[in-house]
Please model this.
Amino acid sequence: MKVIFMGAPAFAVPTLKALSSLGSRIVAVYTKAPRQGGRRGLEIVKTPVHLTAEELGLSVKTPKTLRDPQARPIRHRDDLPPSGERDDGPCRGRPYHP
Model:
């Protein structure tokens, strides 16, 4: 199974290690970019997920944002395409949160 993993904090590390040990093909790991840290702010500090991914030999990506620059927020239901042009799924336009 191909997996793209997204995470940054230390509690995400066991999940990343488990996916790796189960034989999942981890295509990329997305995490926060390294930041300046340390006592004087001169050291580069990577997230725990970044460090673990590097140990496992995985590709690490650190984008500035995960938002699509072409996407625009839907502020009103008139911004939605007509119902014939969209896939409403099992809820037929009602909010659905599994």
About this structure: The longest strand covers residues 25-30. The CA atoms of residues 56 and 70 lie 34 Å apart. The first helix runs from residue 13 to 21. The radius of gyration is 19 Å.
